[in-house]
Specification:
260 residues; alpha+beta; Uridine Diphospho-n-acetylenolpyruvylglucosamine Reductase, domain 2; four-stranded antiparallel beta sheet; binds flavin-adenine dinucleotide
């Protein structure tokens, strides 16, 4: 049972962060950009026993562009991720431009965005489509865990996300279906990727359906796409949105491959 006023911890090192996580046995919230957490705690301050503020932990806002992969610190804001990743993953930059609005993106972090594992999350869907790994800090130190495995186990904090660089000749397309033209939560979204050999994969999500890889298509055949969407178990209306998102992502992929 938590007291009404949670304890406030402000670790500066990963060792202090790990100690804070261990001391509170899952009865804590990690404060990143606060865009979701702060309104939640304002409504229900006794929800957790401790708030562990990530904003002063060394190195969590670093971006490392290696030869094989790009590593984004968990505290990199969505706005910065959009700028830094645009030359490497243009489809993700487009997706981030559609995430929330600029004031939110200036505060919200890539770690906080992924940690929610919201089925309408552009970040989760992209990271799943690109087989990214989470770097998690826990009692035994840091370890990698594929984003595809889902939720962060209690007692762990996300410190970074590692994304393999696209292979030469790879192209991608992103699309999302919104309720209104002006924005709002996505009903469905899709990322289509093609490799140099012409193999295409499509990942869709939204409306309660977590990011789902629809399979590899040598050639995108309409029926193969419809069949794999029906296997998601989505309700008919949601299947229609997923299909529309997948088809638009494929059209955008074709345009990225041949902009003329
Ligand atoms: C107006 C508005 C519109 C939005 N629209 C969209 C949208 O279109 N698409 C979309 O995807 N999202 C959207 N969001 C959600 C927004 O992206 C999230 O609020 C934000 O990403 C949360 O990030 P944060 O850094 O603010 O995390 P916080 O609010 O600080 O934390 C959120 C949760 O993540 C946990 N957490 C944070 N960092 C870590 C970490 N490093 N390791 C483990 N757990 C962690 C916290 O404990 C907490 O439970 C919207 C939010 C708002 C307010």
């Amino acid at each position: 049972m938590s007291s009404l006023q949670p304890l406030y911890l402000r670790p500066r090192t990963r060792a202090d962060l790990a100690a804070g996580l261990a001391a509170h046995h899952g009865d804590y919230a990690l404060l990143a950009g606060g865009q979701t957490l702060v309104p939640l705690l304002q409504k229900n301050p006794g929800k957790v026993g401790a708030i562990i503020d990530l904003r002063h932990v060394e190195g969590l806002s670093d971006v490392h562009e290696g030869d094989a992969e790009v590593t984004l610190g968990a505290m990199v804001t969505l706005a910065e991720a959009q700028d830094r990743l645009a030359p490497i993953f243009p489809s993700f930059a487009l997706a981030l431009a559609k995430t929330a609005n600029l004031p939110v993106r200036n505060w919200a972090t890539i770690g906080g965005s992924l940690a929610l594992f919201d089925t309408a999350s552009e970040a989760w869907t992209f990271l799943h489509a690109y087989d990214a790994d989470m770097i998690l800090l826990g009692p035994e130190g840091e370890a990698r865990r594929p984003v595809a495995l889902g939720a962060i186990p209690p007692g762990f904090a996300l410190t970074a996300i590692a994304i393999g660089r696209p292979s030469p000749g790879e192209a991608a397309g992103f699309a999302e279906i919104l309720r209104r033209r002006s924005g709002g939560r996505a009903l469905a979204m899709g990322f289509a990727r093609s490799n140099a050999g012409g193999q295409v994969t499509v990942t869709v999500s939204g409306s309660g359906i977590p990011p789902t890889r629809l399979g590899s298509f040598g050639q995108i055949a309409g029926k193969a796409l419809v069949d794999s969407i029906s296997k998601t178990g989505a309700a008919p209306a949601v299947r229609a949105w997923l299909l529309a998102a997948a088809r638009r992502a494929l059209a955008n992929l074709t345009e990225a491959q041949d902009p003329s």
